[in-house]
Design goal:
By secondary structure, the protein is of the alpha/beta class. Helix content is about 35%, strand content about 25%. It contains 18 helices and 22 strands.
Length: about 525
């Protein structure tokens, strides 16, 4: 298929040509600077009513700044901005909402102690004749919204504990209740399972068919080509071009995004496989995973695949000692590893890049240099004091090796793009010279160009004899980078597939426990 749609997501059903009259939203030549930094030089987007329009670009391309302009968070320094053919100038997010623009973020921020209905209508609850909140009417209106969306959510449920997917649907319901004509979905599927993605896509298509204009931002090309009618490409803060989805291929879009031929996205080089580095036997944590046994050898990349909730992250956290386990054993180079003791794992030669780099892998307020050397504090200290110069030189060395893009090692790591933040996490662990590296979702939320760099780095590390465990929810990444694939379903390993025998169909069958005899 020309568009290289993967993951089994079906292309959108024919919906006719999107309306070609007055754009639902038009931003032309928008610019935004922050001091000497040019965040946006030419932000241009033309969103029609009745279409789903993708906005793609590498991290640092200007997408986030453009979205914040649409949301009223930032006022542009220049350019033309219209909603429904009317010139607008948003000074606050309230101005954006009043004009019919609503932004659905990757991680919604609902009030956890309020009900679903209260979250939807907060600040504008229906009132009875006495001026009191009419809770019955509020619940009825919420049910009507969810019926329109085709999603059964109880309006009386407390928001705390709801899945990210349900929280996003609630935000969409809130947008509809505000009569939003434009919905901006910013990386909405990053934390969703396949079933939840399908449901969100169904809601988006239903809104499109009712005339809404939807701007969809994603790094996942299989989703872009399955869902969207047109694609706008940005690079280095500038508008590059717009295409009908049916007229372009993934390689063409990638070339526009990175300004060059990308080459192989998965530059896996076969490495000599050495002795067993890690051996896991019968690892069990009641209610989470059971009887997990596998080995990883020097120079080998072993992927843990499966659906969200299969127990992959929980297994690697137990191996590293973050989480407890009830039975089983973990040995490294033939020596038993003390359970529930991350420091023992680090000392033994294990590095761990967590799934959530911002909350678990980095201290966002600290500098790039301090984050890159967090695992070397004792080694860098002299008489209990750490030399800032030694810290900076060490960080500069690793930043150079991993090509971390930053103006200064003294900048807060929060100022970096997602891909460069991931490189800093990798630098922190590679500085310990591990013999086993565990990477959980190594390329989640980073652009395609940086993904290729991370994949090349992992391949190089394997070539140097480092054993690697990779947890990934991206099937092309699993198939493209792993020497062996361990597929998990409901806390158990249901298949072990060598690279030569692994296919998307076999992995997905094992992930849903429908593959027999794969072990």
């Amino acid at each position: 298929m020309a568009n290289e749609v993967q993951h089994g997501i079906e292309p959108p059903p024919p919906s006719g040509t999107p309306a070609s009259g007055t754009p639902a939203l038009s931003l032309t030549g928008a610019s935004k600077t922050f001091g000497p930094v040019v965040a946006l030089a030419d932000g241009t987007i033309d969103l029609r009513a009745g279409e789903i329009h993708a906005l793609v670009g590498e991290n640092g391309a200007g997408k986030s700044t453009l979205v914040k302009i649409l949301a009223g968070v930032h006022a542009p320094d220049g350019g033309d901005f219209e909603v429904g053919g009317v010139a607008v100038s948003f000074k606050t997010p309230a101005d954006s909402k009043a004009a019919g623009v609503s932004v659905i973020y990757q991680e919604p921020t609902l009030f956890p102690d309020l009900t679903v209905a209260e979250n939807i209508f907060i600040g504008r609850q229906p009132r009875n004749r006495a001026g009191l909140i009419n809770r019955g009417e509020m619940r009825r209106m919420a049910r009507e919204l969810f019926t329109t969306l085709g999603v059964p959510i109880d309006p009386d449920r407390i928001a705390e504990g709801l899945s990210i997917a349900d929280q996003q649907i609630i935000e969409i319901a809130k947008a509809i209740s505000l009569d939003a004509k434009v919905l901006v979905m910013d990386e909405p599927t990053a934390a969703l399972s396949g079933v939840e993605v399908d449901r969100l896509f169904g809601v988006a298509r239903g809104l499109r068919d009712k005339g809404a204009g939807i701007l969809f931002i994603s790094h996942r090309f299989e989703e872009v080509f399955a869902l969207c009618d047109r694609i706008t490409v940005m690079r280095d803060g500038r508008y590059i071009g717009v295409h009908n989805t049916t007229d372009v291929t993934v390689p063409q879009i990638v070339k526009e995004m990175v300004g060059r031929e990308l080459g192989a996205l998965f530059p896996k080089v076969d490495a000599p496989v050495g002795e067993t580095v890690l051996s896991v036997e019968g690892l069990t944590r009641l209610g989470t995973f059971r009887d997990i046994s596998f080995e990883v050898k020097a120079g080998e990349i072993v992927a843990l695949a499966g659906l969200v909730g299969a127990g992959r992250t929980e297994v690697v956290r137990a191996v590293f000692g973050i989480d407890r386990y009830d039975s089983g054993s973990v040995t490294l180079h033939g020596k038993a590893l003390a359970p529930h003791n991350p420091q023992a794992a680090i000392t033994a030669g294990i590095g761990f890049v967590p799934e959530d780099r911002r909350k678990q892998g980095l201290v966002m307020d600290l500098s790039v240099a301090k984050n890159a050397t967090l695992t070397l504090r004792k080694a860098l200290a002299r008489f209990g004091l750490i030399s800032g110069n030694r810290e900076r030189r060490t960080a500069e060395d690793w930043s150079s090796r991993l090509q971390v893009k930053t103006g200064s090692q003294d900048y807060a790591v929060s100022t970096l793009s997602g891909g460069n933040q991931q490189k800093v996490v990798l630098a922190k662990w590679l500085a310990t010279e591990p013999t086993l590296l565990i990477v959980d979702e190594p390329t989640r939320g980073i652009d395609v160009g940086t993904k290729s760099e991370v994949h090349r780095l992992l391949s190089d590390l394997a070539g140097r004899g480092i054993a690697i465990i990779m947890v990934s929810s991206e099937l092309p990444e699993v198939l493209g980078m792993a020497d062996r694939i361990l597929v998990m379903h409901e806390g158990r390993i249901t298949a072990e597939l060598p690279r030569a025998e692994a296919t998307a169909e076999r992995v997905m069958s094992a992930a849903t426990s429908s593959l027999e005899g794969a072990l």
